[in-house]
Amino acid sequence: MNRNQETALQILQEILESVREMTEEAIPPLIQEAGARTQSVLMTVFRTLKRRGYNPSDEVVDALKTAIRTSQLPPLPPPLPSNN
């Protein structure tokens, strides 16, 4: 890489870093709050499924497939009988 290419690459990296910083600062707090609420609900669903004896990832994928087919999310499944 010659000197001009190195200089151009350095300038491009500085521009990209500036754009990244501006983007982070421009994200409205409301979007961050909505994301936090979404994460909270999703984690509650995952914990509930796990406590009920299900694999949360599999159940969420199945629920999303059902939602795509029917336009409705299915209810949470009932707890599995314990093996105790």
Strand content bin: under 5%
Order of helices and strands: HHH
Number of strands: 0
CA(first)-CA(last) distance: 67 Å
The percent range for helix content is over 70%
C-alpha Rg (nearest Å): 23 Å
Mean pLDDT across the residues is 86
- Derived structural class: mainly alpha
Oligomer: single chain
Low-confidence stretches: none
Cα shape: elongated
Largest sheet: none
Q: Helical element count? A: 3
Walk me through what this model shows.
- This protein is mostly helical.
- The chain has helices at residues 3-26, 29-51, 56-70.
- It is elongated and about 70 Å long.
- Helices cover 74% and strands 0% of the residues.
Explain briefly what this protein structure is.
This protein is mostly helical and 84 residues long.
Quickly list its features.
3 helices, 84 residues, mainly alpha, 74% helix, 0% strand
Topology:
Blueprint (H helix, E strand, L loop, with lengths): L2 H24 L2 H23 L4 H15 L14
Helix pairs in contact: 2-3
